[in-house]
Please model this.
Amino acid sequence: MSGFGFSIALALGGGGARGLAHIGVLEALDGLGVRPRAIAGTSIGAIIGAAYAAGFSGLDLRRHAEEIFRNRVRLARRLMKARARRRTRTFSDFAQPALIDAERFLDVFWPAGMPENFEDLKIPFIAVATDFRLRREAVLSSGPLRPAVAGSMAIPGLVRPVAYGDSFLLDGGLVNPLPYNHLAGLADIVVAVDVSGSTGAKERERPPSPLETIVVASQIMMNAISERMLEERPPDVLVSPAVNQYLALDLFKAKHIFAAGDACRDQVIDGLRTAAARLELQRRA
Model:
């Protein structure tokens, strides 16, 4: 499909560790010779989407991620270094001692050589976050890249909010976990990759931990928002990796999540072919 004939825009959704499946979809697009005209991302989708927009291929990102996850002890140490630090300790620090600094987290997961600003990316990119002060969606596409993407992945209760202008940014999944709506009109075909997973859960004997409760509650909310968006106005192509069984913090199950993304190649090809055929009929009408 290297002579595809239609432009595409790509939306990468939020979902924590499940978002590693995005990489397999990017590799499928690379193999088809299809380069997005624009990219939008939320949370993990913003992390991976920004790197792809910077010019790193799907294969580059896979090799980088595999290197990160190859040594679990080293990864755990790097994540410990990403913990937020304060000059003075307060009672709230004891309530949540493992709060992560989002920008330090990016240092762990982004490849070296990422641009400083949106304007330096090779593909136009949109990061979606939540503006804490205004209590609404923040759509960011210019200026400093790092704080925008860091804010997009700032899961409440787990990752410290990111200062941005006169406000703070939180996880974009709170308002728009699958931001394909921001790509309307930017390309012939809008492709969205949904890694939000399922609200279903296996039966368990023990109650969830406080941290698990926070993470899964966010997941449930993201599921509800995504489902409503897809019912009201779906994208031209929807790719849904089979990642329902994984939680947002299942970083050490990366190998299995990669495999779920790899299994989506046929979804990508069939979806693009169907969308292209539909557009071709419209052109001839």
Q: What stands out?
A: Strands lie at 8-12, 38-42, 125-131, 136-140, 162-164, 167-170, 189-193, 237-239. The mean pLDDT is 87. The longest strand covers residues 125-131. The longest helix spans residues 210-232.
